[in-house]
């Protein structure tokens, strides 16, 4: 393994101790002693920081000890312990994958994703339940599809630091659709499949700015890091918060003729009962209502992983509102549903879409 600069060697070496302290709470004197040993070993032996980093990653799966830090308030724990620990862990992971070649980062991400899927049994169980409910004919392949889904999710995460290189391996179809809509308001329906970063480059290629309504991280430090880390790669994509505030901001953007992207494949408890993969599912039709308000089209964009590293981004022809809100929303559901039937392992099945 390559030797790390002193600062990174120390940081990687201390990572497992920090995770252990956050989760289990050990005596500070013991931690101080082991920290001194870790720093020394990290400086003398090039492989030690990498081993320590892997060990720390394993510690992340340890249950939180209920008696950890009993004298500290929840607000204090979040602000000074939990949030910094999560942000540092994500930063180290990002740095780790960034120093790896794209192919290695993608393959390692796949292995970690599959391993995580085995450990997060509750989510895996829900994914299997969703799959069996909607695609019963895939009986023999259910477990394989979900295993591949976790691997694909891991690949996508591992590839994030290499977005610029990944874009070069990606085919973009129908960019002309976006170019024709430049200078006009329009909506984009996006889905939880593969890399969002690849969609942002649609607008770069069309020389446009766009907005995306997305749920922001609960950890403000993590949110700041993610925006800084991907700011240059996603410079033409502005993020709006999920919820009422995000919709208000989206209206302002549309008034300025800036397109707004909304994920339409999540469960929405107050939504309309529309069919999704042939089964009733609570569906938000806010994207269609916005299109009706501005009398503008909706464009669906799908990202498909064609092999290990190559992707294809397909931009569909615009869908124009016709006064029948649910009819247009059903059409969007059907577009995604047909894609999922073709590539079932590339959609993220862990969302409780059908409230099973």
Q: What characteristic shape results from the CA principal axes? A: globular
Beta strand %: 5-15%
Radius of gyration: 22 Å
Helices and strands, in N-to-C order?
A: HHHHHHHHEHEHEHEHEEEHEEH
Helix content: 55-70%
Describe this structure in words.
Strands 1-9-8-2-5-3-4 form a seven-stranded mixed sheet. 36% of the residues are buried. The longest helix has 26 residues, at 74-99. The termini are far apart. The chain has three domains: 6-71, no CATH class; 104-157, no CATH class; 168-346, no CATH class. It has 356 residues and is α/β, with parallel strands linked by helices. It is built from 14 helices and nine strands. Helix 1 runs antiparallel to helix 2 and helix 4 (74-99) runs parallel beside helix 11. Strand 8 and strand 9 (311-315) form a beta hairpin.
Mind sketching the topology for me?
Elements: H1 6-24, H2 28-44, H3 48-59, H4 74-99, H5 102-119, H6 121-134, H7 142-159, H8 163-168, E1 170-173, H9 175-180, E2 187-190, H10 196-205, E3 210-214, H11 220-230, E4 237-241, H12 244-255, E5 260-263, E6 272-276, E7 279-283, H13 286-294, E8 298-305, E9 311-315, H14 325-342
Parallel strand pairs: 1-9, 2-5, 2-8, 3-4, 3-5
Antiparallel strand pairs: 6-7, 8-9
């Amino acid at each position: 393994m390559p030797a790390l600069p002193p600062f990174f060697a120390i940081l990687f070496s201390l990572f497992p101790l920090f995770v252990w302290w956050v989760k289990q709470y050990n005596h500070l004197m013991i931690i101080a002693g082991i920290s001194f040993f870790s720093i020394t070993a990290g400086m003398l032996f090039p492989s030690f920081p990498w081993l320590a980093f892997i060990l720390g990653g394993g510690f992340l799966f340890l249950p939180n000890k209920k008696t950890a830090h009993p004298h500290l308030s929840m607000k204090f724990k979040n602000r000074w312990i939990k949030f910094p620990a999560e942000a540092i862990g994500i930063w180290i992971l990002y740095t780790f994958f960034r120093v790896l070649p794209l192919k290695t980062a993608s393959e390692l991400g796949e292995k970690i994703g599959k391993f995580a899927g085995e450990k997060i049994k509750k989510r895996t169980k829900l994914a299997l339940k969703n799959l069996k409910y909607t695609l019963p004919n895939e009986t023999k392949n259910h477990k394989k599809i979900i295993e591949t889904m976790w691997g694909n999710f891991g690949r996508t995460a591992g590839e994030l630091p290499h977005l610029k290189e990944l874009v070069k391996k990606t085919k973009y179809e129908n960019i002309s659709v976006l170019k024709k809509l430049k200078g006009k308001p329009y909506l984009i329906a996006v889905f939880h499949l593969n890399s969002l970063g690849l969609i942002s480059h649609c607008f770069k290629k069309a020389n446009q700015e766009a907005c995306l309504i997305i749920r922001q991280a609960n950890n403000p430090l993590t949110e700041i890091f993610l925006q800084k880390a991907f700011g240059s790669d996603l410079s033409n994509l502005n993020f709006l918060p999920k919820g009422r505030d995000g919709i208000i901001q989206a209206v302002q953007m549309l008034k300025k003729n800036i397109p707004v992207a909304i994920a339409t494949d999540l469960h929405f408890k107050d939504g309309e009962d529309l069919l999704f993969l042939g089964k009733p599912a609570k569906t938000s039709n806010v994207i269609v209502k916005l299109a009706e308000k501005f009398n503008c089209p909706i464009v669906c964009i799908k990202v498909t992983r064609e092999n290990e590293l190559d992707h294809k981004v397909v931009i569909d022809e615009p869908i124009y509102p016709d006064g029948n809100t649910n009819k247009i929303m059903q059409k969007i559901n059907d577009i995604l549903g047909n894609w999922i039937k073709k590539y079932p392992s590339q959609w993220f099945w862990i969302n409780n879409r059908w409230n099973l």
